């Protein structure tokens, strides 16, 4: 029982990948096929409190005040089991999570959610983990959560394709990415905040298993990452944006070619993509990326974000537009939070 605080609260922010994580090589350990790179945002934090309960027979989980059930509950319990196994403790827990991002809308609620849960659960169960170990742990809840452990830009290493499972597990974590003079913003066009029809988990598996385009995208993604890292270091937002846009469109192409096809883009998505081209033609560097949902996130300079947001408002019809900057890594809140 030593070292356990019995209760801990953590906050984490979502991240948006500029080089995408798409496809697993090990579903159980959540080992990705490709390296990915993201920016952690300064909006939509998730705050999660974990309290150990000596007398409880089951974990009790609430998400935004409502009891979690089904798959959402199963994933949190499986994650807590992993923490309990490492900590050598059997206590069940009460988990309360407040999420400010629309859940399941392709805005990475699972990233902030599992990053916050990893940090809070590790502390509550008395595991003393550094950021690298927390990233590795968060990965097991949701791959993209490994990156939200860190603030700013982070790269998540896929780890060696060969070797033991233990070697792969150890190597697959995120770490901060050095950048040059870059004052970036992501302008988010929320086009449909409803839950998605195909989960990213299902879509990834189907793509890897059936898409004839998957292997070529995965291969080109390595080159995209190298180019992206150099552009970030050089503070070259045009190249960062160009590479991010082609990497995301390529990922969506792999899904469109899956059998049956997975299509997250809607007419509203395409209207916003058209607008991004127009913004660029008007001389403002702005580049789109999309995840497992219809929403579009547009990378631009902070100084141009107001102008980009105004243009997207026009194109986004019934949607909402907001501007995010680089945000902090996951952290424990002091006291009782
Ligand atoms: O972490 P997951 O399993 O929700 O996967 C997220 C995958 C994408 O958001 C589509 C891409 C990424 O790298 O975040």
TrEMBL record:
The keyword Lipid biosynthesis applies. Pfam families: MDD_C (PF18376), MVD-like_N (PF22700). Residues 12-161 form the Diphosphomevalonate decarboxylase-like N-terminal domain. SUPFAM superfamilies: GHMP Kinase, C-terminal domain, Ribosomal protein S5 domain 2-like. GO terms for molecular function: ATP binding; carboxy-lyase activity. It comes from the Bacteria. Keywords: ATP-binding, Lipid biosynthesis, Lipid metabolism, Lyase, Nucleotide-binding. Residues 187-314 form the Mvd1 C-terminal domain. One of its GO terms (biological process) is isoprenoid biosynthetic process. Gene3D superfamilies: 3.30.230.10, GHMP kinase, C-terminal domain. The keyword Transmembrane does not apply. InterPro entries: GHMP_kinase_C_sf, Mev_decarb, MVD-like_N, Mvd1_C, Ribosomal_Su5_D2-typ_SF, Ribsml_uS5_D2-typ_fold_subgr. This is Putative diphosphomevalonate decarboxylase. It comes from Actinacidiphila reveromycinica. The lineage of its organism: Bacteria, Bacillati, Actinomycetota, Actinomycetes, Kitasatosporales.
């Amino acid at each position: 029982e030593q070292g356990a605080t019995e209760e801990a609260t953590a906050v984490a922010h979502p991240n948006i990948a500029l080089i995408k994580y798409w496809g697993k090589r090990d579903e159980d350990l959540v080992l990705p096929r490709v390296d990915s790179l993201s920016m952690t945002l300064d909006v939509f934090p998730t705050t999660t409190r974990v309290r150990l309960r000596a007398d409880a027979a089951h974990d009790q989980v609430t998400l935004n005040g409502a009891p979690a059930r089904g798959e959402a509950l199963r994933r949190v319990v499986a994650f807590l089991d992993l923490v309990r196994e490492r900590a050598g403790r059997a206590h069940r827990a009460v988990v309360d999570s407040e999420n400010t991002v629309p859940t399941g809308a392709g805005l990475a609620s699972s990233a902030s959610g599992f990053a916050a849960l990893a940090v809070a659960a590790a502390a509550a169960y008395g595991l003393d983990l550094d950021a690298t170990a927390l990233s590795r742990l968060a990965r097991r809840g949701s791959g993209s959560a490994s990156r939200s452990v860190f603030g700013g830009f982070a790269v998540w290493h896929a780890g060696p394709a060969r070797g033991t499972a233990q070697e792969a597990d150890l190597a697959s974590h995120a770490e901060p990415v050095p950048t040059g003079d870059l004052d970036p913003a992501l302008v988010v066009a929320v086009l449909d905040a409803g839950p998605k029809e195909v989960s990213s988990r299902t879509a990834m598996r189907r793509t890897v298993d059936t898409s004839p385009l998957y292997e070529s995208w995965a291969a080109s993604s390595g080159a995209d990452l190298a180019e992206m890292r150099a552009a970030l270091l050089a503070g070259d937002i045009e190249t960062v944006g160009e590479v991010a846009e082609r990497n995301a469109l390529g990922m969506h192409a792999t899904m469109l070619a899956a059998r049956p096809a997975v299509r997250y883009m809607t007419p509203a998505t395409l209207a916003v993509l058209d607008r991004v081209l127009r913004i660029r033609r008007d001389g403002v560097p702005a580049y789109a990326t999309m995840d497992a949902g219809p929403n579009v996130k547009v990378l631009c300079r902070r100084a141009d974000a107001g102008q980009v947001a105004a243009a997207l408002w026009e194109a986004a019809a019934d949607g909402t537009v907001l501007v995010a900057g680089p945000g902090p890594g996951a952290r424990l809140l002091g006291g009782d939070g």
